[in-house]
């Protein structure tokens, strides 16, 4: 059942800084100081880095979704996993009760990634850690009249993406040729956001909001809508530019959230416990 439109309720251009070698450049797509607005998402970072930036480190209480924009990303983890991801590939990680992993550039590459943190409800924060690689060629690509739709997670246009996140989400990449239009059906009760990778697009139909490369926008949602209700996100590419956007949506969890460093829990006491467990070697095993 269609109930209305998805609109852009807030938007901004990502601001970048240079943290210092080997972390070449970093910007917040979803700044962490506003995390309560993004539920079920927590933050999203845009990073350029060389080897040694994100070596062996722990996590607990949430999930990560890492999209490789460019370069080669080498992953090792506490379960003995090892993989190399390339442009367009995505890695999903459930940190659960405790994960240790490393995310490194290969050789002398400068790797460019987008990493989204996805919360876990209290009932799933002590689950076993797990990892899943979603390679570009395994994410279904739907041809549109004016471009294409790639489905990494969730369903659209009759196809379902391969990502198996504990908290179900939609993750789509849409490419439109200059001046083309497309309307994407999204759950009405899903919170979500978009991030422009290329060109310029207008969202929300006539009188909508135009966003260009490295701009982010929060989507409107109806928290009281039934699970089966959908809304349309109307998208129009600029007349002179081929354009590409990432779209993420998920149903809010609606629980208290406390985030500190690499841990995301429900209370301060649980954060203290997470740090104590890490110091005692109880958060994952060494990579």
TrEMBL record:
Residues 172-283 form the Pirin C-terminal domain. Gene3D superfamilies: Jelly Rolls. Residues 47-118 form the Pirin N-terminal domain. Signal peptide: none annotated. It comes from the Bacteria. Belongs to the pirin family. PANTHER family: PIRIN, PIRIN-RELATED. This is Pirin family protein. It comes from Sutcliffiella horikoshii.
